[in-house]
Amino acid sequence: MSGLLSCNMNDSWGNVCQPRQVQSTLNWRTDVLPAADKKLVVGNRRSYGDVCINDGGAIIDATGLNRFISFDKATGLVRCEAGVTLWQVAKLVVPHGWFLPVTPGTGFVTVAGAVANDVHGKNHHVAGSFGCFVKKFQLRRSNGDELLCSESENADFFAATIGGLGLTGFIGWVELALKPIEQSKMAVESVSYSTYEEFLALSGESEKTHEYCVSWIDCLDKSGRGVFFRGNHADEGGLDADLDTSKRSVPAVVGAGFPLVNRLSVNLFNAAYIRAHSGNRQYTETIAKFFYPLDSLLNWNRIYGRKGFYQFQCVVPQENTEILTEAFARISAANQGSFLSVLKTMGTITSPALLSFCRPGVTLAIDFPNRGNKTRQLLLALEELVMQAGGAIYPAKDATMSAATFEKSFPKLAEYTQFVDPAFTSSFWQRVNT
Ligand SMILES: Cc1cc2nc3c(=O)[nH]c(=O)nc-3n(C[C@H](O)[C@H](O)[C@H](O)COP(=O)(O)OP(=O)(O)OC[C@H]3O[C@@H](n4cnc5c(N)ncnc54)[C@H](O)[C@@H]3O)c2cc1C
Known about the structure:
5-stranded antiparallel beta sheet
């Protein structure tokens, strides 16, 4: 039986959608899906925009499906329910010499959420996206069909559901191929740089020697200064999971008030961050610190106050990446942007997903405090630049892209649409599927 229905205002991570939606919960894989004809199953709602929102419809929270089904310590195959988080997976498998093959910048996402957005991590240049490691999953459709999906079984649903934005049905469990590791500590190097061209050179050189590469940039500095981080699993340190999650949290009262993020605070933070990371530094750190630095402060999204924030993430092809310098200039001139601005390159490994965002090029992700129309105008200008460059915008982070942009960015959209479950929808889908 599904849980009690109730009306709520549960938002996504950016807190800008403010939906009116009916919520229910799933606690068992055999629970009957609510009969609503406009439903969406969601995970931990770490998506920033409206892919995990269903304004005017029903959302079904699957985080109660948090059990492991099997873990083969010899082969590194793990099967778990949809709502198991990547933190939970890491805690179970790291002490046995395995790790997530791909992980985004937070461990609080669920495995089904990671499948549905075909998420990527700091190792895209050598590993590809999360979907490249999904071996099998169970998909339940609203007509009662229960499909086992893999590259050889229901392969069409397999390709449509990975990166499928939760619209092809309810994922009950996922089987994932893990990555072997010998040590859990990370050997890291940070290198400061002054221009976007230096970032490109550092990426090119570091990707030959380092499994994980990512860069923080000062989004208010027109020249594109930043700090490049590159890392490998260390040669020593043992297999200590060392994955305790933080108990520090931003209080709810901050989230109900005015934003703490403004030009002054961003400038002060960015200058201090650059100073702290000047030159070249080498150190070792835990998996938790390296992969999930933001998870050390729970509910950090509350610093954006009651109006919330948007995240803009795009990818532009390598040959047109100079368009990003124009993007930095516009962001700086608009006096917007935040501490959290990330640049990284994506490699050529293709995902099995029909709708994957991941493709070769440079990806830029920036948070913007929600200043209403002013912010939406800037997002529109950035969207136009990305379209001129032949790039794409990431649905997991998006709350504003147009239907035309979505269609242009995902060439296999028409093929994918045939697999959408007729009883499933989302606010994102209602916006882009016109
Ligand atoms: C701090 C932070 C850092 C991040 N860093 C990255 C990054 O580096 N790379 C990256 O790619 N992403 C990143 N993200 C985005 C995040 O990884 C994705 O949005 C992810 O999909 C969120 O998973 P979730 O469990 O919270 O799912 P939700 O946000 O709740 O849902 C995401 C999608 O999954 C679908 N879904 C969830 N459960 C099911 C199910 N059981 N059956 C069918 N569909 C389902 C939903 O319908 C929705 O379409 C980051 C997010 C945060 C907050």
